[in-house]
């Protein structure tokens, strides 16, 4: 084991080459009240993602939490969702989100029914250029979000859309995930096949998690708009219904 650690440049003789790595591997902090030390420990455990120079400077999309950029490279089109991490709370949210999205990525790749209507995450981590930027890389969906088509879709097509979205939500719930922000803006109608794809999992949480944040919009269930929201599987189902109605 010592030989392997030396080959990986973790050890120099029998001492750690990095005090940070030593503390991280042993699972304790030297200065528990040091914000700088906590930031270093956090950064050491997270994958770094290089943002390509070819990334478009102007965001293609702007959500409440992040900017989304489009990039063409390696014979594919990818979306880069970039979020600023400017507080301990935002870092905690990112760590929780990263764990959830890695689980979702694995479930989607397994190809269960309904997974075809969920966005395809490729990578999640911190920017290699700025450790205060969280980065998601996912497959770009060529199409139009449903907010551009409100009231202009034939009823038969809306019914078909509802079947597919119901399958997507059933897949998420079987994966123990609540999206919490299903709305026309977060559903892209693909040009190829006209299938819906649910995007933007910035508010997503595990069904078993204890979270108290409310969500007040015309697509939110009544029980989650109040100060003490009651988040259950019903919330996403309500949002699908409100979206189809619109």
Structural notes for this entry:
The structure is a single chain. The chain is α+β, with helices and mostly antiparallel strands. It has six helices and 13 strands. A six-stranded mixed β-sheet has the order 3-7-8-6-5-4, with helices on one face. The chain has a three-stranded antiparallel β-sheet with strand order 9-11-12. 26% of the residues are buried.
Helix and strand layout, with pairings?
Elements (H helix, E strand, L loop, with lengths): L1 H6 L3 E2 L2 E2 L2 H8 L8 H10 L3 E2 L11 E2 L4 E7 L2 E9 L3 H23 L10 E7 L5 E7 L3 E3 L9 H20 L2 E2 L8 E4 L5 E3 L6 E2 L26 H13 L1
Parallel strand pairs: 3-7
Antiparallel strand pairs: 1-2, 4-5, 5-6, 6-8, 7-8, 9-11, 10-13, 11-12
Helix pairs in contact: 5-6
């Amino acid at each position: 084991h010592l030989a392997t650690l030396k080959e990986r440049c973790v050890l120099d003789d029998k001492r750690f080459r990095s005090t940070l790595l030593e503390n991280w591997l042993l699972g304790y902090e030297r200065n528990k009240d040091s914000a700088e030390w906590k930031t270093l420990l956090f950064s050491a455990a997270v994958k770094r993602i290089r943002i390509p120079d070819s990334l478009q400077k102007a965001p293609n999309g702007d959500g409440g939490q992040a900017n989304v950029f489009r990039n063409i490279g390696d014979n594919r089109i990818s979306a880069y969702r970039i979020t600023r991490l400017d507080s301990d709370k935002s870092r905690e949210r990112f760590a929780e989100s990263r764990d959830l999205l890695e689980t979702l990525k694995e479930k989607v790749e397994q190809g269960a029914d309904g997974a075809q209507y969920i966005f395809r995450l490729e990578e999640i981590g911190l920017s290699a250029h700025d450790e205060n930027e969280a980065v998601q890389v996912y497959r770009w969906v060529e199409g139009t979000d449903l907010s551009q088509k409100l009231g202009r879709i034939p009823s038969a097509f809306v019914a078909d859309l509802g079947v597919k979205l119901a399958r997507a939500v059933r897949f998420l719930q079987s994966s123990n995930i609540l999206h919490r922000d299903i709305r026309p803006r977060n559903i892209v109608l693909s040009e190829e096949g006209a299938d819906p794809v649910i995007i933007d999992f910035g508010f997503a949480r595990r069904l078993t998690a204890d979270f108290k944040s409310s969500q007040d919009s015309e697509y939110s269930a009544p029980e989650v708009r109040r100060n003490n929201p009651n988040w259950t599987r019903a919330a996403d189902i309500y949002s699908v219904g409100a979206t189809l109605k619109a």
